[in-house]
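Example record

Each entry pairs one chain with its bound ligand, fe (ii) ion.
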Amino acid sequence: MKKRKNSGFFCLILLLEISIASLACGGGDDDSSNLPPNRIGKSINYVSNMPGIKVDTKKVREIIYPLFTVPAIIKKGENLSVKVDTGGLVPSNWSVTLTSIDGSPVTFSRTLNVIGISSGSSYWRTSSTIYEVLVDIPADILSALYDITVSYNTSSGMISDTQPHSVCVVDEYNKDFSFVHLTDMHVGSPRNNLDSTEVNEAGFWSPDKFRRWLYIQKTIREVNLLKPDFVVITGDIVFGQLNPLEYVYEYEEIYRVLKEFKVPVYIVPGNHDCYAQDAMITDGQLYWTNYFGPRYFSFNYGPYAHFTGADSFDWDKSDRAGAELLVKTWGGQIREAQMSWIRSDLETNSYNRMPVFTGMTNS
Ligand SMILES: [Fe+2]
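Structure tokens for the complex follow.
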């Protein structure tokens, strides 16, 4: 399964894209038919399901690499540089731990050997207190996907932060590696809601959170069975276009759903993830940063490839304005600041395979 020719994984990409489309239109067993029609496509559906949700939820805090959406795939015995923003505090007594992800067949934690601390910087997080914490990945650790937890002491007490699914330890990098490309999951989309069969089968707005968005959940289950080396998602993971407060619920919902992946996942935003709604009060781009971190980034798959992910909805907040069905633009662009970062990223890395991926913001 791991060693697959290139032509194979292009077929796989195609099949998965067909699969996600077909599952959206059929093949489910949810029973949303009991829901009154006015529940379909309304963000208020979530209010009773997520009573404690906060509008300022922040998943990316002190750890700024590796992340849930920018994980590190690393070989046993190599060193990993963990990047941490202490927010102005002076840290001491660093501790870095890998913990098996929820649902792992074997559960355990392993504290890593810290071999160096140095000051660092970030192209997407402005801070004067960014640290690079260099750790050993033990040669005898189980090859698996892990949550990472970083703890350190400060004058304000001990700080601890975790990024789920952010470190994937492998025995070897596969020269003929495989990845799955998924796109436009659109949690929260009211599309197809005129056909009750499709609504039912796709699990739209089921009051049971484990039965909502079945087309995504089924795709994730297929991907987990295929066990690709990683997954790339090119945006539009939420809908965020019709009602105030949609992002509050949709980001929380997609974050929960994405954690069902058992393989590393890299994600860039699409237009639907970054609209500035409610007369520009609710900023999807801010939600992206709070939940997932950078809007563009790059990563290496061992010595075999360098991937660069771009944000194709790169506009000022006023240009990203949207209210109900009226949005100022859904077209794509990449501006100079990002483009110069991409140019520099491509110039400073030299690999045989250097794909660039981004969402197509035309829908
Ligand atoms: Fe889309």
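The domain at 63-170 is CATH 2.70.50.50 (Coagulation Factor XIII; Chain A, domain 1).
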